[in-house]
């Protein structure tokens, strides 16, 4: 059964689709995109606070990922160097939401790579004939520089991936060690509990024996006292008979 869609969600989805379609058509560093993304974030926060007709958790998570992707595109454009922009764009989550997200990522990636190539080749600063001649002479070296930059970015990504794998392995080892310690403590606790139960049962048996013994000893004392009283009484009668008053 489909959940009812609120008017706020309809407006949010419409604005989100408009932003995703607007990004490939706009000029770089255009200020309106940031305002659109800010408006999307505010509406998404309102959607999360709704009590009635609220979207499902999966739908909200998808909306959040798409808005975060657009925010990442905006923040990447604010970085000072083209190298940082390209690296930030490369680290963005993409490709799993919509075709518009994939299109945005591919377009921004191509744009930043083109700007990096132009910056390395000097097309922005050397438009005259002398610059063209020098660029032709140093074409091999600039291509090597471009390859070095790309290799540097690849090595940085591999380093980050290795660090993440190392962190995951450390977390796994720590969790296994913690589980082993918890199992040991559980075994010790179970042994202590079983020993306590055993000692309690033994103490109960000994208490019952002591109680029975105490009852028996008390009965013997009573019988002995009664026997002594009877003997004393009989001895007094015999004494009176043997030595009557004169």
Describe this structure in words.
This protein has 246 residues and is an all-alpha fold. Among the domains are: 1-83; 213-245. 82% of the residues lie in helices and 0% in strands. The chain contains seven helices and no strands. Helix 1 (7-22) packs antiparallel against helix 2 (31-49) and helix 3 (57-77) runs antiparallel to helix 4 (82-90). The longest helix is centred in the last third of the chain and has 104 residues, at 139-242. The chain is elongated and about 150 Å long. Mean pLDDT is 76; it is low at 124-130. The chain crosses the membrane at residues 222-243. One of its GO terms (biological process) is protein transport. InterPro entries: Vesicle_transport_protein_Use1. It is found in: Endoplasmic reticulum membrane. One of its GO terms (molecular function) is SNAP receptor activity.
Mass-distribution shape: elongated
- Distance N terminus to C terminus? 122 Å
* Rounded radius of gyration (Å): 45 Å
Tally of DSSP β-strands: 0
Helix content: over 70%
Mean pLDDT: 76
Taking pLDDT < 50 over at least 5 consecutive residues as the criterion, the unreliable ranges are: 124-130
Let me know the largest β-sheet.
Answer: none
Oligomer: single chain
The class by helix and strand makeup works out as mainly alpha
String of helices and strands: HHHHHHH
Q: Helix count, per DSSP?
A: 7
- Measured by DSSP, the beta-strand proportion falls in under 5%
């Amino acid at each position: 059964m489909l959940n009812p869609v609120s008017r706020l969600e309809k407006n949010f989805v419409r604005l989100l689709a408009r932003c995703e379609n607007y990004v490939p058509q706009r000029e770089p560093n255009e200020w309106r995109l940031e305002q659109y993304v800010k408006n999307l974030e505010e509406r998404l926060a309102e959607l999360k606070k709704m009590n009635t007709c609220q979207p499902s958790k999966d739908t909200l998570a998808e909306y959040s990922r798409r808005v975060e992707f657009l925010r990442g595109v905006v923040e990447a454009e604010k970085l000072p160097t083209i190298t940082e922009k390209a690296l930030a764009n490369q680290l963005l989550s993409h490709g799993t939401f919509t075709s518009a997200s994939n299109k945005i990522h591919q377009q921004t990636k191509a744009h930043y790579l083109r700007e990096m190539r132009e910056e390395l080749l000097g097309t922005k600063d050397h438009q005259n004939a002398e610059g063209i001649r020098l660029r032709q002479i140093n074409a091999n070296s600039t291509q090597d520089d471009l390859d070095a930059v790309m290799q540097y970015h690849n090595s940085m990504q591999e380093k980050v991936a290795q660090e993440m794998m190392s962190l995951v392995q450390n977390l796994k080892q720590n969790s296994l060690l913690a589980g082993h310690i918890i199992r040991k403590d559980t075994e010790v606790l179970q042994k202590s509990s079983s020993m306590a139960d055993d000692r309690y049962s033994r103490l109960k048996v000994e208490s019952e024996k002591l109680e029975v013994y105490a009852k028996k000893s008390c009965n013997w004392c009573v019988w002995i006292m009664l026997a002594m009283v009877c003997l004393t009484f009989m001895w007094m009668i015999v004494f009176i008979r043997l030595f009557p008053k004169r």
